[in-house]
Design goal:
The complex is a heterodimer. Chain A is α/β, with parallel strands linked by helices. Helices cover about 40% and strands about 15% of the residues of chain A. Chain A is elongated. In chain A, about 55% of the residues are buried. Chain B has 2 domains: about 230 residues, Crotonobetainyl-coa:carnitine coa-transferase, domain 1 (Rossmann fold, 3-Layer(aba) Sandwich); about 110 residues, formyl-coa transferase, domain 3, CATH 3.30.1540. In chain B, helix 2 packs across helix 7 and helix 4 crosses helix 5. The longest helix of chain B has 24 residues. Classes of the chains: A alpha/beta, B alpha/beta. At the A-B interface, helix 2, helix 6, helix 7, strand 6 and helix 8 of A face helix 3, helix 6, helix 7, strand 8 and helix 8 of B. Strand 12 of chain A pairs antiparallel with strand 8 of chain B.
C-alpha cells in the first residue's frame, strides 16, 4: 500500500559510509524513503572491506558488516573525484530532500559539494554531516572509527575489571550511539522544514553524542571530585549484581538482586537443588565475606541450564538475563515473535536475517524492503528512472569513466 | 505560537508529557533541547527516580540522584496522583493539549500505562505515545523483571566484553536505559513528523533489548555467514578482519590508549596510520626490520600469524609506553595516526577539543547552589539551535502554571 509509511515520498541522497551514517539513513529507508547510496569502487564504503564475508571470501558485495546497515537502499556508482561528477551529483541533489555525509570534514568541500553549494542547488535541502570529532576543534581532521570514539567518549574506561587494563567494548560503540542522535536531528530538521519551508545544515560529532551518556558521571566528578572508573559488573547499591556460570561451555547468566525480598526469592530457587533449606543457605552466605559471595553463588548456578534458571528466577520476580551469544539472538523465540529479524535475499550473499529497528509504530509499520545493494546495482535505474537521463546521456557519462 | 519561536527551535510549541523513571527522562531531556515544552508528571512529593542511587547531597542540602539531575534539566514538573479519578481527569486535561507522551517501564506497570494511554487517546486522538520497555510492549516477556545488567546480557553485548579468562563484563554505565531513551527520541520524532503530515497520532514501542542488539554491529551476521560466535575480549581481542588476536588497549606513560596499529579491514587510513607510526619511531631511533618487512595493514594482513603479530606489537608496545597520552594524541592529530586516549571522567571534562567546540553548557541552579557543566551540544543546526536547559524542576513547581484548583487546564496555557 502506498503512503502507509512515515517517510513515503521522502528522498535521501546518502554519501555515508562505515556504521554511524548508514545506520542513521537506514531508518529512513526502512520507513519508506527512497534512499540512494552514492559510492564508488574507487572509494568504497570501508565496511564493504571488512568481514564477515560470505564463505569467508572477501568481496565488495560479500560483507555482512556492510549488509546490516544498508537495507532498503539503492546504490549508484559515481567516481566523486572525476571532473564530470557534477553531471550526476547536481541532479541528485536537486532531487533529494536530505543529503547525508559521514566523511571526515572537508571531503565534500574538496569535491565541490559543501553545504553552501548544495544549498545553491537545492535551497530546501537538509544536510547531515556526521563525523568522529566534528567539523571544528583541534582534532577535527584526525581519522578514526567508533573504536577511537568509544575510548575518547569514556566507554572504554568504564568497561572492564578494576585490577586490569580497560576492556574495549565490542563494536564501534559510539557509532551505535551517534546513529540514534543523527536520525533524531534529521527528523527534527524535517519538522522544522515542514513548519517553515527552510532547509538547514546539521553537524554531529560522534564522540559528543557518546558523552551524553556520561552526564551523571561528569556531574558527580564536578560535585565531589570522585571520578567513576570501571568496576566489573559490580553495583555497590545492589545486594547482588553480577554474571554467574551456568551449565555448558562458557555459558553465563546475569542476576540482579536489589533488596532482601528478592534475595530470599533467589535463594528459594537456588537452595533446593543444592539440598539446602533457604534459611540455611542464607545463613552460610551471610557469614561469607562479600568478595567471596559471587564465587558461592556461582557454585550454585553452575549446574543449572541458563534458560531454565532464567525462567525460574523471572517467575519469582528476580531480574536476570541469560548472556546471549550472537547465535542465541538469531535463534531467540522471543525476538522471532517480535519480528526482529527480516529475511532478505541478496544476489551474492544469499538470504540473510537482517536486524530490524528497535521501535515499532502502531499505524505506520517499518519495512525492510531489500537487502543491502551491490555496489552500483541501481546505477542505471537511478539515472534513467529517477533522474530521467536518456540512453545517449547514460552512455556518454558511462564512457567518461564516471560510473565506476 | 510566535513565528520567531518556530524559526528558533524545531519543536517550539510542541508539548510533551513525561512519565519517566530513567529511559524516558533521557528522551524528555533531548526533546526539551530541541525546543519542546516537556512536563514531567510526578507523584505528590516527587518521583522515586529523584533518589535513585548514586545520589549526592547538593549545596542546598537536597539529596538528589545524579542520573536524575543529569537528565531532567530543561523540564517543568506537575504533580498528579494518577491512581485516582481526579488525577486521571487532570491528566486528561493536560493530554488534551499535549502532542507527545513518553513513558518507561520503571515508572508505571503495563496495565496502568495502558489505562493512561486510553485516557490520553480519548482526550486527544492525535497524541503520539511512546513506551520504552526492556522487551518492548505486548510480548510474552513484557512483564519479566529486567534491570540494565540483564538487558545488556539479553541484548548480546555483555557476552562479548571482557578477558577470556574471566566472566563476561558489562559496559559500566546504564546503557540499556540510555540507548532505549535516545532511540525513543528519533522514533518519537518520526511519529510526530507523521502526525504533522497526516494528523494521525499513534503509539510507539521501543525495545531496550533490540536497542542493545544494535550495538553489536556485525555479530549476528558473523554467526549467519561463518557459523561462528565471536569471542569476547578485553584489552586484547580478535578483530573481525583478522585471524589473530590483536592488542587494542596499550599502556602508555600515564594511562592507556586505544590503538590497533596493524591488521586488515580499515582500508587505506590504517595503512597511512601505520606508516606514520613507523616514521615517528624512526625519528626517535626505534627501528627494526620487522616493522617494515611485511605488509602489516594491506590485503596480506589476513595472513599474519599470531607469532609475527606478537613480535611486532612488542616493539610498538615499548614505544607507546615511553609516551604520554597527550604526546601520543598530539602526534596522532599531526600525522593521522589511528589512536585515541582512553578518557577518564576528568579527561573528558577537561578535553581541549571539546572545550574548543564549546560542547558543554554550564547550568547555574541558584536554588540548589550548583553551577555545573552539562554535556549539551549533541547536534549543531545552522537554522535552529538546541535550547540551553533550565535547571531541573522541584516537584510540582509548575502545578499552578498548568492547572487551576479545580483541575482544569489554565486558559492561558
Amino acid at each position: 500500500m502506498m503512503n502507509t509509511q512515515i517517510f513515503s515520498g521522502l528522498k535521501v541522497l546518502d554519501f555515508t559510509w562505515a556504521a554511524a551514517g548508514p545506520i542513521a539513513t537506514k531508518q529512513f529507508g526502512d520507513n519508506g524513503a527512497t534512499v540512494v547510496k552514492i559510492e564508488s569502487t574507487r572509494h568504497p564504503d570501508s565496511v564493504r572491506l571488512g568481514g564477515p564475508f560470505k564463505n569467508d571470501t572477501p568481496g565488495i558485495n560479500r560483507s555482512g558488516f556492510h549488509a546490516d546497515f544498508n537495507s532498503s537502499k539503492m546504490s549508484i556508482a559515481v567516481d566523486m573525484t572525476h571532473k564530470q561528477a557534477a553531471r550526476v551529483v547536481i541532479p541528485l541533489v536537486e532531487w533529494a530532500d536530505i543529503v547525508a555525509v559521514s566523511f571526515r570534514p572537508g571531503v565534500m568541500e574538496r569535491w565541490g559539494f559543501g553545504y553552501d553549494r548544495l544549498r545553491e542547488i537545492n535551497p530546501g535541502i537538509v544536510m547531515l554531516n556526521t563525523s568522529l570529532y566534528g567539523i571544528s576543534g583541534p582534532w577535527n581532521a584526525v581519522p578514526g572509527f567508533g573504536a577511537q570514539g568509544q575510548a575518547v567518549a569514556g566507554f572504554t574506561g568504564q568497561t572492564g575489571w578494576p585490577d586490569r587494563p580497560p576492556a574495549s567494548p565490542k563494536g564501534a560503540y559510539t557509532d551505535s550511539v551517534s546513529a540514534r542522535y543523527a536520525a533524531a536531528a534529521i527528523v527534527a530538521a524535517l519538522i522544522h522544514r515542514k513548519r517553515t519551508g527552510d532547509g538547514q545544515f546539521i553537524e554531529i560529532a560522534q564522540v559528543e553524542t557518546g558523552i551524553e551518556f556520561l552526564a551523571p558521571q561528569l556531574l558527580q566528578y564536578q560535585l565531589t571530585g570522585i571520578a567513576q572508573e570501571r568496576n566489573g559488573n559490580c553495583d555497590p547499591t545492589a545486594l547482588l549484581h553480577g554474571v554467574f556460570p551456568t551449565s555448558g561451555d562458557d555459558r553465563w547468566i546475569a542476576i540482579e538482586v536489589w533488596n532482601q525480598e528478592e534475595w530470599k526469592r533467589l535463594l528459594a530457587v537456588l537452595a533446593a537443588p543444592a539440598g539446602l533449606a533457604p534459611d540455611e543457605l542464607d545463613a552460610s552466605l551471610s557469614a561469607a565475606p562479600r568478595e567471596d559471595l559471587e564465587q558461592y553463588i556461582g557454585d550454585l548456578t553452575a549446574p543449572w541450564d541458563g534458560t531454565e534458571l532464567m525462567g525460574r528466577l523471572r517467575e519469582r520476580g528476580v531480574a536476570c538475563g541469560v548472556v546471549m551469544r550472537p547465535s542465541d539472538l538469531c535463534e531467540d523465540v522471543y525476538l522471532r515473535e517480535r519480528d526482529h529479524f527480516w529475511s532478505l535475499p541478496h544476489p551474492e550473499m544469499g538470504t540473510l536475517d537482517y536486524n530490524g529497528p528497535a521501535y515499532r509504530f502502531e499505524k505506520t509499520p517499518s519495512r525492510l524492503t531489500s537487502a543491502a545493494p551491490c555496489l552500483g546495482e541501481h546505477t542505471d535505474h537511478v539515472l534513467r528512472d529517477i533522474l530521467s537521463f536518456g540512453d545517449d546521456e547514460v552512455a556518454e557519462i558511462r564512457a567518461m569513466g564516471l560510473l565506476v | 505560537m510566535a513565528q520567531t519561536d518556530v524559526k528558533r527551535s524545531p519543536l517550539s510549541g510542541v508539548r510533551v508529557l513525561e512519565l519517566s523513571y530513567a529511559a524516558a527522562a533521557v528522551t524528555g531531556r533531548h526533546l526539551a533541547e530541541l525546543g519542546a515544552e516537556v512536563i514531567k508528571i510526578e507523584p505528590q512529593g516527587g518521583e522515586a527516580a529523584r533518589l535513585t542511587e548514586p545520589t549526592e547531597v547538593l549545596p542546598s542540602g537536597e539529596r538528589l540522584s545524579l542520573f536524575w539531575l543529569a537528565f531532567n534539566v530543561g523540564k517543568k514538573s506537575v504533580c498528579l496522583d494518577l491512581s485516582d479519578s481526579d488525577g486521571e481527569r487532570r491528566f486528561a486535561a493536560l493530554a488534551a493539549e499535549a502532542d507527545i507522551v513518553v513513558t518507561d517501564y520503571q515508572r508505571l506497570g503495563a496495565a496502568e500505562t495502558d489505562r493512561l494511554h486510553a485516557v490520553a487517546k480519548a482526550a486527544n486522538p492525535a497524541i503520539v505515545w511512546t513506551d520504552i520497555w526492556p522487551f518492548g510492549r505486548g510480548g510474552r516477556d513484557e512483564n519479566f523483571p529486567a534491570g540494565d545488567l540483564s538487558i545488556q546480557a539479553l541484548g548480546g553485548h555483555l557476552g562479548l566484553n571482557g578477558d577470556r579468562d574471566r566472566r563476561p563484563v558489562r559496559v559500566g554505565l546504564p546503557v540499556a536505559m540510555l540507548h532505549g531513551g535516545s532511540e525513543a527520541v528519533s522514533a518519537t520524532l518520526m511519529a510526530y513528523y507523521h502526525r504533522l503530515n497526516t494528523g494521525e497520532g499513534q503509539r510507539v514501542d521501543v525495545s531496550m533489548q533490540e536497542a542493545i542488539v544494535w550495538t553489536l554491529l556485525n555479530s549476528t551476521m558473523t554467526w549467519q555467514l561463518l557459523g561462528q560466535n565471536e569471542e569476547r575480549g578485553g584489552a586484547v581481542r580478535k578483530e573481525r578482519a583478522n585471524k589473530f588476536f590483536t592488542r587494542l588497549i596499550w599502556e602508555c606513560a600515564d594511562g592507556h590508549i586505544f590503538f590497533s596499529p596493524v591488521g586488515g579491514g580499515m582500508g587505506v587510513v590504517r595503512a597511512k596510520s601505520y606508516a606514520a607510526l613507523v616514521r615517528w619511531m624512526a625519528e626517535e631511533g626505534v627501528t627494526d626490520e620487522l616493522l617494515t618487512s611485511k605488509d602489516w595493514t594491506g590485503t596480506d594482513a589476513f595472513r599474519i600469524s599470531q607469532e609475527d603479530y606478537d613480535s611486532v606489537s612488542a616493539i610498538i608496545g615499548r614505544f607507546v609506553r615511553s609516551k604520554t597520552m597527550e604526546e601520543l594524541m598530539d602526534r596522532a592529530v599531526a600525522d593521522n595516526i589511528l589512536l585515541a586516549p582512553i578518557s577518564g571522567i576528568p579527561g573528558i571534562h577537561a578535553n581541549k577539543h571539546l572545550r574548543a567546540r564549546d560542547f558543554f553548557e554550564r547550568i547555574e541552579d541558584r536554588a540548589r547552589g550548583t553551577s555545573l557543566d552539562y554535556p549539551a551540544r549533541w547536534a549543531r543546526f545552522s537554522a535552529t539551535r538546541l535550547q540551553a536547559p533550565a535547571p531541573a524542576p522541584q516537584p510540582g513547581e509548575h502545578d499552578r502554571d498548568y492547572l487551576d484548583d479545580a483541575g482544569a487546564l489554565r486558559a492561558a496555557v
